[in-house]
Every structure is written in C-alpha cells, then in structure tokens.
Design brief:
Blueprint: E1 4-9, H1 12-34, E2 37-41, H2 46-54, E3 64-68, E4 70-72, H3 82-86, E5 95-97, H4 106-116, E6 123-126, E7 151-153, E8 162-165, H5 167-172, E9 176-180, H6 189-193, E10 209-214, H7 221-227
Parallel strand pairs: 1-10, 2-3, 2-6, 3-5, 6-9, 9-10
Antiparallel strand pairs: 4-8, 7-8
C-alpha cells in the first residue's frame, strides 16, 4: 500500500481518540491552506465515538464540508441509515451533504450527488467489514468495476441496496484514514496492508493512507508475517 502507515492501539476507544486527533490536524491544515476542509465519512459504528471525541478538538466547523461515503437505501430516520446515528453528533456548524437515497429515481440522484463532490477530498474515512468490503464496495458486486461514475448504486447486500462513492473518488483523496477495530477484522487486515485485490478494501489506491487499528484487529498480523 503506497504511502501506508499503520498504528496499533489498545482498543476501539483509543482508535477513536487517535482518529479525532488526526482528523482535527488534517482539518486545521486544509483550512489554513485552502480555507476549507472537505471530509467524507463512512458508515458503520466507528464514526460514532470518533465524532464524540472530535467535540473536544479545535476545528473551525463552519469551514468544514462533510459528505457520506456510503448510505443504505432506506427511509429517513430508519435505524439502518448511517445518517440516523451520525446526524445528532456531527457539529451543527458543519455543512453536511446527505446522500439522496430516498429519491424515487436513484440513478439521477447519484449523478446529482456526484456533482456536489469536491475535486479531491482532503480526507476520507474508511472502515472495513469482516468480508473485506469498504464503503459499500462489496465482494462480487458490479460496483467494484465502476470507473466512469463517482457515485454508484450496489445490488442488494445484507438486506439493502447502497449508494456509494467509487474507487476513482477514494483514489483521488489527499488522505485516507482507515479505522479498523475488532477481532472479526483480523483475517482481513493483512490483506488490506498487502493491497490484496481479492478484497475490495485492498483495491483502494490513494497515495496517503493511515490505518489505525486496535490490538484485536491486528492480532493476525504476526501470523501473516510469519507465513509470508
């Protein structure tokens, strides 16, 4: 993984604190350099504590734009929606761009969302599933091969269709921050670090990537190293 760094911390709480520090530092640098910080946030549980920790950081939130990396196609307020849990903990001054997954015609909705994206995100937060998916780039879905759209729609995956940013957007990001916690990710983490294209997460090619993992998720690294 070109430019990849990995930090292994004690637990998920420590991962969230470190993530908040990194995001705040990148935000301050982007605002100083370009007047604005553009940030894309993935679904899952990892952003919840991260944003709570961010509340203690010095960030000019009125100069921050936040987009979604992915979202389930579900009604507003549905517990399956990533935004349902995130919206209450995102700082009120931030400029939030929800994915339009409730539109009747999702294809044009994805195109409209793509038109709102910055040319290159300052930072994209990514997680990884126990099957190696990231964003909603899921194993064996045709969305993995989409290179001519910045936002695309998946087939049904674990009960829901998804709207997701595609690899071209992830790869253009100035920085990618991976948050990986839990023993269920232990088998996948060595593949991510090896840029193994057999898993969707391993195909992300952004130049600057920081992986922050807890000990449980990193438990397979030593074994993988011995077996290589």
């Amino acid at each position: 993984m070109t430019g990849a760094r990995i930090e292994v911390l004690a637990d998920a709480d420590a991962v969230a604190r470190r993530a908040a520090e990194e995001i705040a530092a990148v935000a301050r640098g982007a605002i100083e350099a370009r007047g604005r910080f553009t940030f894309a946030v993935s679904g899952g549980r990892s952003p919840w504590e991260m944003f709570r920790e961010l509340a203690a950081e010095d960030v000019a939130w009125d100069r921050v734009g936040i987009w979604q990396v992915d979202e389930r196609v579900a009604p507003d307020g549905d517990p399956d929606r990533n935004l349902t849990s995130l919206a209450p903990i995102i700082p009120a001054k931030a400029d939030v761009h929800p994915m339009p997954v409730t539109d009747a015609d999702l294809g044009p909705a994805a195109e409209r969302y793509a038109a709102t994206l910055p040319e290159a995100f300052d930072l994209i937060h990514l997680g990884m599933g126990d099957d190696g998916h990231t964003a909603s780039l899921v194993p064996e879905d045709p969305v993995l091969g989409v290179t001519d759209q910045d936002v695309a729609l998946t087939g049904e995956y674990r009960g829901r269709r998804r709207m997701t940013l595609t690899y071209p957007v992830l790869d253009r990001a100035r920085s990618v921050l991976w948050l990986i916690a839990g023993e269920d990710k232990a088998a996948m983490l060595p593949l991510l670090l090896a840029r193994d294209a057999s898993i969707p997460a391993g195909r992300v090619a952004a130049a600057d990537q920081l992986v922050v993992a807890d000990r449980a998720a990193a438990s397979g690294l030593a074994a993988a190293s011995q077996g290589s």
